Amino acid sequence: MSLHMSCEMQLPAWLDEFVDDWADPLETVEQRMHLAVTLAAENVKHHTGGPFGAIVVEDDTNRLLSVGVNLVTSVELSLAHAEMVAVSLAQSAIGNWNLGATGGAQLVTSCEPCAMCFGAVPWSGVSSIIWGAGKEDAEEAGFDEGDKPSDWVESLERRGIRTRGGVLHQEARAVLLRYARRDGAIIYHPEKH
Q1: pTM
Q2: CA torsion sign, 178 to 183 to 186 to 189?
Q3: Residues forming the active site
């Protein structure tokens, strides 16, 4: 038996030019969330994945370390959520698995992290996480967000990871709902038996 020993997450072709053209500052959480939500909307517009976007910004400099969009359906990898893509690319950009190694980084995501992305946050080294839409918004659109502990926010805070939700909530929620109403929208989750 031959095992396929590699996988690849290729970002959509439109993304490089889009990020290069982004001129808005990233000094406030609202400005950062605007980029994350716009990435989610562009991903839907270009039919390159699900309605989720994320960015990682360096705390001290406000420098954009990476962006991520949901690639689950385009690269056929269930772990290719926007947050996972953004964190992986940021770690690659700084050459360290620990995003706190260079003074701290903020993960900004258009939607509250699902169970998988929540689990990855403490080990990524981010100093804070900001989200727009909530779990209930993603589930209203048809996505299965998985089970998280009821005190998930407090558990991150106990680890020293600052949190803030509901930033540009209506804008982020609107992207999810537009996607769900679109013809051919792929709401991915394993079939329940």
Answers
A1: 0.93
A2: positive
A3: 83
